[in-house]
Design a protein that fits this description.
Shape: elongated
CATH superfamily of the largest domain: Immunoglobulins
Largest sheet: 7 strands, mixed
Strand content: over 45%
Helix content: under 10%
Structural class: mainly beta
Radius of gyration: 28 Å
Number of domains: 3
Number of helices: 1
Distance between the termini: 44 Å
CATH topology of the largest domain: Immunoglobulin-like
CATH architecture of the largest domain: Sandwich
């Protein structure tokens, strides 16, 4: 059974909807190649019109604006009510295209050239009809699921309208279109197949807000699963000793499988002072922990935040010059093999093979034997001259319980991460957990 009641919320999260103070209307954009259609979403009804169409008395709307449904092959969803709001009779043609979104959440769509090559497609009944001024017509959508598919599918239903009488010269390009977004879920037939969203963080960025009262953190993630994910998250800003100085939330968003979303959050910068900080992003999907990542950044004089971006996939930064600068190297990470657990000394040796000065920024993490992060401190020290090696000495600020640990030092360079890990043991009576 279809569920059109959440149409406004789905468009808001999927389509990057912006509010309009005039009557609560909302504006979104539907893009396809070189064409962009402005969509007006109002109380669950979406009305798209190409430039110049209104002057020809052509205007149609659909309700609902989106449909969420669990379906199987042969199911019918809808109806979608198509209404002619213009002053002329119109011929309406319906079609189905595959939907998606860009990183900002703006819906995108592309034509289905071969229905057999897509997982799910929709046929409409009726697909073509004429509407008099003020007239309405219900349209039903039949869902076709290709054999073996399970997961999420997101067809977009399009309705195109043109004046019923012979087009005049002024009608060229004036073809209104309306869209109905769908979020369809096809249950697996096999019990071993699961429907899961798998959001993975792919990049982090930190930048100062224009009024210097806030820090904007942008987390980009991809959904490697087979179903759409409702994403949200928190941002913890930690000082050089790993203590939380301030925090904020990432704006929630919908992310379809195979697509990426950029989630943004504004964090209060008032508690911060000049120095190095670490932003920890904790991503959640449907309220459950999904992924986490770190990025170090600096607050400079005048509370200016140095913009910083890190690619978490290990993709090398693009070089704008004729030669790519030589990357620095973590020559060694030293931790006592057996430690007391208090005032743990850490040494990170950085080697700079490039011809330019290296101003190191990064962090050191400690993980327990279950690979859970125990804590993190900022990696900061004196600049390293070309060809030199610098040793940065740190003291872990908290006592560690007896056990097996791994220390990992990460140096941020350009938009890359360079990491080195080493195991160590905190002495005492060690008991590892076991399953009963």
């Amino acid at each position: 059974m279809s569920e059109p009641r959440e149409s406004a919320a789905i468009l808001s999260t999927l389509g990057g909807v912006a509010g309009d103070s005039r009557g609560g209307a909302r504006n979104t954009w539907l893009r396809n190649g070189k064409t962009a259609f402005a969509a007006l979403v109002c109380a669950g009804v979406i009305s798209l019109a190409s430039p110049g169409a209104a002057s020809q008395g052509v205007s149609i709307r659909v309700s609902p604006a989106s449909i969420t449904a669990a379906v199987k092959d042969g199911d019918t969803i809808g109806p979608v009510l198509v209404t002619n709001r213009g002053t002329s009779a119109v011929d309406v043609q319906g079609s189905c295209e595959m939907g998606g979104h860009d990183q900002a959440g703006v819906p995108v769509h592309h034509a289905i050239k071969d229905p057999g090559a897509v997982a799910v497609y929709i046929t409409l009944d009726p697909a073509e009809f004429r509407l008099p001024p003020g007239g309405s017509r219900p349209v039903y959508a039949k869902v076709h699921v290709n054999r073996g598919f399970s997961g999420g599918a997101y067809p977009i239903i399009l309705f195109r309208a043109r004046r019923a009488e012979a087009p005049s010269e002024g009608d060229i390009g004036a073809t209104p279109q309306v869209a109905v977004l769908t979020l369809l879920t096809v249950a697996p037939r096999s019990p071993v197949v699961r429907l899961e969203a798998e959001p993975v963080l792919t990049s982090l960025a930190v930048e100062g807000n224009a009024d210097r009262n806030g820090i904007r953190v942008i987390a980009t993630c991809e959904n490697a699963g087979n179903i759409h994910a409702s994403l949200s998250g928190v941002v913890l800003i930690r000082d050089c000793d790993g203590k939380v100085a301030t925090q904020g939330a990432l704006a929630s968003a919908m992310c379809l499988p195979g697509y990426a979303r950029a989630l943004s959050g504004l964090v209060d910068a008032a508690p911060l002072r000049k120095g190095t900080y670490i932003a920890e992003v904790r991503l959640t999907a449907a309220g459950r922990a999904a992924d986490s990542a770190l990025i170090a950044f600096r607050v400079l004089d005048g509370m200016h935040v140095a913009s910083t971006r890190i690619d978490l996939r290990g993709k090398p930064a693009a070089s704008h010059g004729s030669e790519r600068p030589m990357a620095p190297r973590i020559a060694r990470l030293t931790v006592p093999a057996v430690s007391e657990g208090r005032d743990l000394p850490l040494e990170v040796a950085l080697e700079n093979p490039d011809s330019s000065l290296l101003d190191p920024i990064g962090y050191v993490e400690i993980w327990d034997y279950q690979m859970k992060r125990v804590g993190v401190v900022a990696l900061q020290g004196a600049s390293t001259a070309p060809g030199d090696l610098t040793v940065i000495r740190l003291t872990w600020p908290e006592a560690l319980a007896p056990g097996y640990y791994t220390a990992r030092a990460t140096l941020q360079w350009r938009s890359e991460r360079l990491s080195v890990s080493t195991p160590f043991v905190v002495g005492g009576s060690i008991t590892l957990g076991s399953k009963r």
